[in-house]
Write a structure and sequence with these properties.
Largest sheet: 5 strands, mixed
Distance between the termini: 49 Å
CATH class of the largest domain: Alpha Beta
Shape: globular
Length: 247
């Protein structure tokens, strides 16, 4: 019995040490133009839901995060080349991406939406499908993929980031922007009077899961997943969620 207790303690200690990163600094690549998930505030600091979640995770597994702004286009190639330890950028977990990177457990579920100008309030998805409006989206995103599937490539304008797409909407260069719902609400607040969340639930009952990405085979994700589980269990995740998205 005594040997069994000693063995159990050793196993628990080993598991604990495996989830302790020893104060390691994790360099996190992020396209910081995607509020409320990540953006640069007036003081030049990277803030957002993803930032707070990763900081809370690090409090559980003994690490610190250092966000590095990078363009979305090419972000996974940069990760594969070792420029970052993680990518945190509102990344949807897809089979295609999973072939080149590994993902953490999901930490957020998103449904796609369509942002419109206020004068177009009331337009439906069917109206857009039947019309000739030009849609905007960010290059290399699941939003761009969905927009092309729904409306065709000829009606799609792609931008380097969603802020540029939203500004194009305001300026009349496009008639709508396909974007994740949480970001659509944030841009509607940021550009109140010029942008609205016109259509929600575009992806229906199949929301997209966000995950943190790491190089293939990187065992750091074991610790990240342990941290995610811990902040879910103690209520930290809910507090962060309410801070950025409300109830």
């Amino acid at each position: 019995m005594k040997k069994l207790v000693i063995l159990l303690i050793a196993v628990l200690l080993s598991a604990s040490l495996a989830q302790d990163l020893g104060g390691k600094t994790l360099v996190v690549g992020s396209d910081t133009t995607f509020p409320p998930f990540e953006s640069i505030n007036d003081e030049g600091v990277t803030v957002g839901f993803d930032v707070d979640v990763l900081k809370a995770v690090c409090e559980k597994i003994n690490c610190v995060v250092e966000f590095q702004t990078t363009a979305w286009d090419g972000i996974f190639a940069a990760l594969a080349q070792g420029e970052f330890d993680l990518v945190a950028s509102g990344v949807t977990i897809t089979e295609e991406r999973d072939e080149v990177v590994d993902f953490s457990d999901p930490y957020y579920y998103a449904n796609q939406a369509i942002a419109l100008r206020p004068e177009d309030d009331g337009l439906t998805l069917e109206d857009l499908k039947a019309g000739n409006q030009v849609l905007g989206a960010q290059v290399g995103t699941t939003n761009a993929i969905l927009a092309e599937e729904l409306f065709g490539r000829d009606r799609l304008s792609l931008y380097d980031d969603f802020n540029s797409a939203v500004l194009a909407l305001i300026n009349g260069d496009v008639d709508a922007v396909v974007i994740d719902g949480g970001a659509a609400k944030e841009f509607a607040q940021q550009y109140a009077g010029d942008v609205i969340v016109g259509i929600t639930g575009v992806t229906g009952e199949d929301p997209e899961a966000y995950g943190f990405a790491a190089q293939e085979g990187d065992e750091i994700l074991e610790a990240i997943n342990a941290g995610l589980a811990a902040i879910n269990e103690d209520g930290t995740y809910v507090r962060i969620y309410k801070k950025w998205f409300g109830n």
